[in-house]
Every structure is written in C-alpha cells, then in structure tokens.
TrEMBL record:
Species in which this protein is naturally found: Lacticaseibacillus zeae subsp. silagei
Protein name: Branched-chain-amino-acid aminotransferase
Pathway entry: Amino-acid biosynthesis; L-valine biosynthesis; L-valine from pyruvate: step 4/4; Amino-acid biosynthesis; L-leucine biosynthesis; L-leucine from 3-methyl-2-oxobutanoate: step 4/4; Amino-acid biosynthesis; L-isoleucine biosynthesis; L-isoleucine from 2-oxobutanoate: step 4/4
Enzyme Commission (EC) number: 2.6.1.42
Coiled coil: none
Keyword Lipid metabolism recorded: no
NCBIfam families for this protein: ilvE_II (TIGR01123), PRK13357.1 (NF009897)
Species lineage: Bacteria, Bacillati, Bacillota, Bacilli, Lactobacillales
N6-(pyridoxal phosphate)lysine: residues carrying this PTM: K184
Amino acid sequence: MSVDIDWNNLGFDYMQLPYRYVAHWKDGAWDEGTLSTDPNLSLNEGSPILHYGQGAFEGLKAYRTKSGKIQLFRPDQNAHRLHNSAEKLLMPPFPEDRFVDAVKQVVAANHDYVPPYGTGATLYLRPMLIGVGPNIGVAPAKEYIFDVFAMPVGPYFKGGMVPTKFVVADQHDRAAHYGTGQAKVGGNYAASLQAGKFAHEHGYGDAIYLDPIEHKYIEEVGSANFFGISKDGKTLKTPKSPSILPSITKYSILTLAHDRFGMKTEETKIAITDLDQFGEAGACGTAAVITPIASITYNGHEHVFYSETEVGPYTKKIYDELTGIQFGDVPAPEGWIVDVPVD
C-alpha cells in the first residue's frame, strides 16, 4: 500500500488511520477485544468519563529502523503505568500482557503509516481506558472501554531538537500532591490548558509548574518532565514530588546517563531559585523526546542555560543515545525493545 504523506513535515496532529483496537469490560470481565475500522466510540450520555473524568491514557511510539523493521520502546512500562492509573481511579486494569499485544496489533495493522527511517518521524500510539455506561451518580462506572489508536507524528515542540524557552506558571497548579499527579489522567491536562495558552501567546514553548504547596520547587514542564545537568556534566538531576507523572523517558534517561556515561543521577527537590547549578536543562517525555530548555523566565527574570540557539553537548549525547536505541542504531538494555512482526 502506498501512503501519500510528507513524512519530513509532520506536526503533532490527529490523523485517522485504518485500524484501532477496542475491548469492552462488562459483568466483571474483559472481552477478547478486536481490531476495528470505526474511529468513533458510542457512549451513553451518563458515562462517568464525561461527567467525572473517570479515564486514563498512555502515549508511546513505534519506530522504523534502518533495516525497515518496526520496534516499540519499553511498552511494558506504559502497560504498568496505565495499570497504576486505573487503580487510582477505581477502574479495572487492562491486563498488561494484553496491552502490549494490542499495541503490536495496531502497529502491524497500520504498518504502512510507520514513517520511514531517517525522517525523525514516528508512529504515535494512544491507548486509553474510560468509564462508560449509564451512571449519573459519583461512583465508578459499571462498564469500561479500552481503545488503542495511532497516527504518524513529527516533533511535539515546533522545530524539534532546538532550544526552547519556557515560563513559570506560578499562578497555576497542574495537580495536587495527593491527587492524581502521578496518574496519566485527563484532568491534569485540562488544568494545564490556561497556563499553556498564556505561555504560547507570549512566545514560550510551554509553562513550567511549581509544587502546589510552597510554589518553590519545579514539578513539570508542560506535559513533560524536567531535568538539569551540572555545569561539569557529571550530574543529572530530575525533580522528585508525589504529583509528578513518572515519565518512562525520564527513567530511561536516568539509566543511560548513569550506566553509559558514568554520570551521577538523582531525583530530588529542585528549587526554581537554584537554577544556577545547571549548565544545561531539558524537557523529556514520549512526545517531547528530549527538548533542550534555552531559558526559564520566572518573576520577570530570564535564566539562560547553555545557549538560546545551540544544544548543549551533554544533552545532545544523551539524546543521541536514547534515539539511537529507539531507532535501532544503538544496542538497547535488555528488555527495552519489542519487535513488531509484519506479515
């Protein structure tokens, strides 16, 4: 099948592909699930996802290697994180082994839409678990839908691997410390829309959120995690907080920085007033991959890191290692890569 897409100029936008995977939970069990050609879900108007936000989702990617193979990056970690999100919202978790299998089915069925090697584009997958059925009271749903759909995407931040400016959203919180911050749920993202709109209108890539109690410590960078690298390149730090989403990309970076580059890695509180300790900084996540942070503006003061126009050498080294693994050019730690067979 020939697909007419400009692979080199993809944005991060929805595109309807031929196949998605759908499974239903009812009467205490998940059905067998199936691939579907229908992009629409039928929901009762009383569904708890519509009224009370009882739903969670994931994001992961499929990559085309130089040899033409297709592979996934740590999908078991996404399966486990969705399991944890489901438990937080009192939803029946979708079995983790079936999650990985469903993702593989969607990728294989839409394999013509996995971008060619060398374009930098990927096939983005969006698994989601939502509470449905007639249920107007504030209580868990009696029925659930698990759905996985996909689309080819380019970089999340415009320009890709280029330094991006961010602004601190000190009048906004993304999530509460003991709320749903560690779960990947829609409400956390709805809470970010207002600050994100302000940031974009004022020329920034996105907003940075501080901790919701003292407003002193960095939490997240828009929909990504923050990391900072010491000026001598020997230490990499990421924020620690009960309201930060545990980024699979972040933990992969921590592992690679320590195991392959001998860096000291640490999850700790990072005060917004203590940015001078870092020579480089970045935002990391499945969508963002690694986006260098050019500067952070806080209370009218702009703190510039390595450069406003060039990527720092340590950030670039980690980025090359991570994406090299994802695209099959660098050996991966055991269990990080899952091949997708295509008939």
